[in-house]
Design a protein that fits this description.
- The structure is a single chain.
- With 155 residues, the chain is of the alpha/beta class.
- 37% of the residues lie in helices and 15% in strands.
- The protein contains five helices and six strands.
- The protein has a six-stranded parallel beta sheet with strand order 1-3-2-4-5-6, sandwiched between helices.
- Helix 1 links the parallel strand 2 and strand 3.
- The longest helix is centred in the middle third of the chain and has 16 residues.
- InterPro entries: Nuc_deoxyri_tr2.
- This is Nucleoside 2-deoxyribosyltransferase domain-containing protein.
Length: 155
C-alpha cells in the first residue's frame, strides 16, 4: 500500500500523504540495509517512503559538482528531505556516516527529524548534544525508530 521512491525516480507524489525520508548510514559493506526493514514496516500504510539507497550506485562517480550523476543524487536527497513529512535518521555504530551528520545539521531546526544513534557510534556525543539543543526525539534501536516514525506519520 505504501509508495516507495528511490533515486533517480522523480519525486512525484501526493504531498498531502504522509512521507518519510530514510536518512542514515548507507556505507556499502559497513551498514546493514536498514532501509529495507523500514520499507517492510511501513508497507501496509499509505505512506510515501523516500529511500536514497540507490540500486545502481556507482562508486566511480567523481566527488564533484561537475559529475552529473553525483549532483543528481545529492539534489534528489535534498529535495526529498525538504518534501518529507518526517526524516527518520539512523547512525549505525559500524559506520562514520558523514553525510548523515551533515543532514542532521541541515534539518535539525525543522522539527521533522527522529534520531536513532546507538551506543558505539563514533560521534554519539555530538549527535546527542545537537538533538538535545533542537528538541529532536531520540530512540535507542531501529525497532523504536520505526515505531516512532509510524506514530509521527499517523497520529
Amino acid at each position: 500500500m505504501s509508495l516507495l521512491l528511490k533515486p533517480p525516480a522523480p519525486l512525484s507524489f501526493d504531498r498531502t500523504l504522509p512521507s518519510v525520508f530514510l536518512a542514515g548510514s548507507i556505507e556499502m559493506g559497513a551498514a546493514e540495509d536498514w532501509q529495507r526493514e523500514f520499507e517492510r514496516g511501513l508497507g501496509d500504510t499509505p505512506a510515501v517512503i523516500l529511500n536514497p539507497r540507490r540500486d545502481d550506485w556507482d562508486s566511480s562517480w567523481k566527488q564533484s559538482m561537475s559529475d552529473p550523476n553525483l549532483r543528481a543524487q545529492v539534489e534528489w536527497e535534498l529535495d526529498a528531505q525538504d518534501a518529507a513529512t518526517c526524516i527518520a535518521m539512523y547512525f549505525a555504530p559500524t559506520t562514520k556516516a558523514p553525510i548523515t551528520l551533515l543532514e542532521l545539521g541541515l534539518f535539525a531546526h525543522t522539527g521533522k527529524v527522529i534520531v536513532c544513534c546507538p551506543e558505539g557510534y563514533w560521534r554519539k556525543g555530538n549527535v546527542d548534544i545537537v538533538c538535545a539543543r533542537y528538541g529532536m526525539p531520540m530512540v535507542a534501536s531501529l525497532a523504536e525508530l520505526l515505531a516512532a516514525t509510524r506514530q509521527r506519520l499517523f497520529s
